[in-house]
Design brief:
This protein is of the alpha/beta class. Helix content is 40%, strand content 19%. Keywords: Phosphoprotein.
């Protein structure tokens, strides 16, 4: 029987999640807040932690980093906050957006517990040096597959399960806008989170990204720098309550 730890500062939410998951034959424990969870982990190791993102002591990303620095227990975030792309790159094992049904929650838990392979990221850029840079930074923490344009990316997506796509804007054959629009119109790819990375500040501010439900648009240099800090943070233990470096959003 898999052991689950539920972490939330709201007692009503904890009670609802516990009822939903205990019915699926899990051994469930609940705690209110990240600090209490970290204390419990000193004496008990679950198979999976489900945590809220917005908690008073620390947010979900800071909590995940502290857990990984100590126990390496997978953490799934359950939250009203829409940050699935950032969660993947910060090493979170799963992300469920509230509101969620009991069946959806159980299915998400089963996916994470049943995962035997690592997370695959798709990098789409016509610059081979940029693709090589992403691969150097992201592997071996992630499996990285590459495409030089949108058409090649769609071909890869049809053959490889991908957790996140990192997409350039200006590319030959099929550009970033055309690729993401094609993804959103295809039931197989429409829910894949997309991060748009570009050296074109004007393109990064374009309103089309909102229409295409892009998780974030980021300038390439800032994104690469941010990724480096995340890899460093993953390798080095985190002192308690250390602030997480902000996701490098482009102001529109």
């Amino acid at each position: 029987m898999a052991k689950l730890l539920l972490v939330d500062d709201d007692s009503g939410t904890l009670a609802w999640m516990a009822e939903a998951l205990e019915g699926a034959a899990y051994d469930v424990r609940t705690v209110r807040g990240g600090g209490a969870a970290l204390e419990l982990l000193r004496t008990w190791t679950p198979d999976l932690i489900l945590a809220d993102f917005l908690m008073p002591e620390m947010d979900g990303f800071a909590f995940n980093r502290l857990v990984q620095s100590r126990e390496r227990v997978p953490v799934m975030l359950v939250s009203v906050v829409n940050k699935p792309a950032e969660a993947i790159l910060r090493g979170v094992a799963g992300y469920v957006r509230k509101p969620v049904t009991a069946a959806e929650l159980r299915a998400a838990v089963e996916r994470v517990l049943g995962a035997v392979e690592g997370v695959t990221l798709l990098v789409v850029d016509d610059d081979a040096d940029i693709r090589a840079c992403y691969r150097l930074i992201l592997e071996p923490r992630f499996t990285v597959i590459e495409a030089e344009d949108g058409r090649a990316a769609l071909d890869l997506l049809s053959r490889e399960p991908v957790a996140l796509a990192i997409v350039d804007v200006h590319m030959p054959v099929m550009n970033g806008v055309e690729l993401i629009r094609a993804m959103r119109e295809d039931a197989r790819f429409c829910t894949i989170p997309v991060v748009v990375q570009t050296s074109d500040r004007a393109a990064a501010r374009a309103p089309v990204w909102t229409d295409l439900h892009v998780a974030q648009t980021i300038l390439k240099d800032e994104f690469l720098d941010w990724l480096m800090t995340q890899i460093d943070a993953h390798l080095a233990p985190a002192p308690p309550r250390e602030a997480e470096r902000a996701w490098p959003a482009v102001s529109r």
